[in-house]
Amino acid sequence: MASMLGTSSIALFPSRSRCQSSPSVHALSLTTGQVFGRKFYGRIGFHGIKGRPQFSVASVATEVNSVEQAQKIASKESQRPVYPFSAIVGQDEMKLCLLLNVIDPKIGGVMIMGDRGTGKSTTVRSLVDLLPEIKVVAGDPYNSDPQDPEFMGIEVRERVLKGEQLEVVYTKINMVDLPLGATEDRVCGTIDIEKALTEGVKAFEPGLLAKANRGILYVDEVNLLDDHLVDVLLDSAASGWNTVEREGISISHPARFILIGSGNPEEGELRPQLLDRFGMHAQVGTVRDAELRVKIVEERARFDKNPKEFRDSYKAEQHKLQQQIASARSALPSVQIDQDLKVKISKVCADLNVDGLRGDIVTNRAAKALAALKGRDKVSAEDIATVIPNCLRHRLRKDPLESIDSGLLVIEKFYEVFS
């Protein structure tokens, strides 16, 4: 996905004593020079007073020259190569659930359960290349939306109320990995020790939930996640905000993210409270067809041998899929669903004794996203039949004596109601 390069400035994170630039902005200033005897990076100058690090901001905007563009491209190519999403063979159910969540993040994420070695983590991480760009407030650690107050940090909202002009940049949607060994401080955020020691002030250092706002939070082996981290995720997923109360700091910030989890059911069940927070549930099985297995092995061998060449061979398909997602996201608000279909969806949920109304809401949203992906402005019964097992399968009450797959129960009830 091409980024536009021109002129701009890089804002300083208020709570950090180091400088970070947002990826893919309209303009990027990264020139290094000498300004009044001190080193100058972009628009941020560093100088010391009595041994203490201080910051001063210069109102300078410079053009990005061809050398800097080449450095940026080289930096991107030096990153760990990601397997292309369009190169993944099979696993259509999992891929569809992921695409629908990118089109409409309010679906609420997807839980992927399946056997070992079926490409769950590979598929999720390959989604990075397809993620579209969004508008964010420059220099804001919470990726605040410059137009939607729901996704604004408190500081940005105060600036808007004062009538300040916000500097807006474009950046790709973040995908944040939550490791199983992460501490609660790293996930929620904590006091900025560096600033406390150097400047003697209490400042908040944002955690992974802040970074994941308006993005994707991925938890591999989610069924092995510690209970205290599960509680944190539940709280944020329920309210869309993360509240931190510690070391004399009291702060809240938006934490609305697409929660994606993967795991092996043999390694343990997921807590029902967390399972219900996932909008969709995808089941992944091992491919049994011998020819298909050979194709997967050969494609993987090609990628391991020469990742760049392999990715280039799928560049056209990746670009086509990116365009399809972008079109679906822009067309989504105009997609309609008939009242009759809404009633039938709710009847299926009621007949299956699904607790709460989350199943009804997610099914409606997923069906609209699928219609938008197919380029239609109206939801059909076929769209609902495709997504309803993934939206309701994990919400059914478990019967220990029942051997039939819960997805098949949903399909049976769907045809009974919709016929």
Helix content: 25-40%
CATH class of one domain: Alpha Beta
Oligomer: single chain
Largest sheet: 5 strands, parallel
Strand order of the main beta sheet, please?
8-11-14-5-15
> For the record, what is the CATH homologous superfamily label of one domain?
P-loop containing nucleotide triphosphate hydrolases
Mean pLDDT: 78
Q: Count up the helices.
A: 16
Global structural class: alpha/beta
Number of strands: 15
Low-confidence stretches: 1-75
Q: Predict the CATH topology of one domain.
A: Rossmann fold
Content of β-strand: 15-25%
For the record, give the distance between the C-alpha atoms at the N and C termini, rounded to a whole number.
Answer: 43 Å
Q: What does this entry look like structurally?
A:
The protein is an alpha/beta fold. Among the domains are: 81-131 and 172-287, P-loop containing nucleotide triphosphate hydrolases (Rossmann fold), CATH 3.40.50; 334-418, Helicase, Ruva Protein, domain 3 (Orthogonal Bundle), CATH 1.10.8.80. Helices cover 40% and strands 17% of the residues. It has 16 helices and 15 strands. Helix 14 (358-373) crosses helix 15 (381-392). Mean pLDDT is 78; it is low at 1-75.
Gist of the model:
This protein is of the alpha/beta class and 419 residues long.
Offer a few descriptive terms.
419 residues, alpha/beta, Rossmann fold, Helicase, Ruva Protein, domain 3, 5-stranded parallel β-sheet, 4-stranded antiparallel β-sheet, 15 strands, disordered N terminus, chlorophyll biosynthesis
